[in-house]
Amino acid sequence: MTANVEGFFDPGTNTVSYLVDDGTTCAVIDPVLDFDMAAGRTSTTSADRLIAAIRDRGLTLEWLLETHVHADHLSAAPYIQEKLGGKIGIGAEIVTVQDTFGKIFNEGTRFQRDGSQFDALFREGDRFEIGTLPVRVLHTPGHTPACLTYVVGPEDAASAFVGDTMFMPDFGTARCDFPGGSAETLWDSMQKILALPDATRIFVGHDYKAPGRDEFAWETSVAAEKRNRHVTDGREAFLKLRTERDATLGAPKLILPSLQVNMRGGRMPEPDADGNVALKLPVNRL
User: Fold this and answer.
1) Could you tell me where the DSSP H helices lie in 32-182?
2) Cα 230-14-68 angle, rounded to 5 deg
3) What are the residue ranges in the chain where pLDDT is below 70?
4) Nearest Cα to Cα of residue 28 among 3, 73, 61
5) What pLDDT does 65 receive?
6) Angle, CA 255 vertex, CA 253 and CA 258 arms, to 5°
7) How many other C-beta atoms are found inside a 10 Å radius of the C-beta of residue 213?
């Protein structure tokens, strides 16, 4: 059975969240919690669109899947779970990310660094189901240590959700300059994706409209990604291009709130004695 896939584009962060279903049971991949950085306020417009679609179609939500700990948006997984149920999953290397950023944000011993904020921690080769749809997990680090690709459906009709590992072929690939990132590792991870059958549908985590393209896009294929503008000249050219380009990039505007929330499974830090929640702003740490 081929998965039904619908992308939900968030223009504030250029993120694409996905609703994946077999007609009865569904998963949500990379849901967005809206966040106004200047006001320090959250809202649920993006998440409510997903919830409405699930309810309108009479689907049962089984999974809320994160491709990685996002640095450009806050996760709405706990909010959607509260409304519809389902289990929250992420890569098992979340513990590496939690250890790294637990230190940067000086979280102390109360912050658990064992991935226990999530319902499932996935490793390379793990398999599970979304209703009748088989899912196979590829560990595809490089952008972050915990990045995963979810390959949904039978091998001859699969859909692969690659997160930030690769973007549309005319745009390129993910940055690798975050703590724990590696251009060499990303190259190896991309080879796992490109080894899938050519007809495999690829769904990317963001789109920024490459120069000359008028519309946002987020679906491509393995065959098309073999012509990705960052891939076609080979490994050494990719490493040079990726390293030089990353040196020119600024930090994502929501990186500090996103990391603090997303490493907790999409939950805010514990409130203080008066019930107030605050996020930290470490200086000169990233």
Assistant:
1) 45-56, 77-84, 94-104
2) 70
3) none
4) 61
5) 98
6) 120
7) 13
Strands (E), the chain: 4-10, 15-21, 25-29, 32-36, 41-43, 60-65, 74-75, 87-91, 120-122, 127-130, 133-139, 148-152, 159-163, 201-204, 219-221
- Strands annotated E in 201-277: 201-204, 219-221
C-alpha separations of 171 from 44, 208, 241, 245 in Å = 29, 8, 13, 13
Specify which residues 6 forms β-bridges with.
19
Please state, in angstroms and as integers, the Cα–Cα distance from residue 277 to each residue in 32, 98, 255, following that order: 19, 20, 18
Is the torsion defined by CA of 62, 122, 113, 43 positive or negative?
Answer: negative
How is the chain split into domains, by residue range? Answer: 4-262
Q: What does the block give as tokens for 72?
A: 């450009």
User: Under CATH, which number does the domain 4-262 receive?
Assistant: 3.60.15.10
**Phi-psi category of residue 266: left, alpha or beta, with phi > 0 → left and psi -120 to 50 → alpha:** left
Question: Sign of the C-alpha dihedral, residues 208, 210, 213, 217?
Answer: negative
- pLDDT for position 22: 97
- Identity at 105, one-letter amino acid code: F
208-215 own/partner pairs: CB under 8 Å, 24+ apart: 208/14, 208/167, 208/171, 209/171, 210/168, 210/170, 210/171, 212/170, 213/170
Cα(184)–Cα(254) distance, integer angstroms? 26
Other CB atoms within a 10 A radius of the CB of residue 32 amount to 26
What pLDDT score does 285 carry?
Answer: 84
How far apart are alpha carbons 33 and 128 in whole angstroms? 26
- Residue 122 CA, distance from chain mean position: 14
**Is the pTM above the cut of 0.90?**
yes
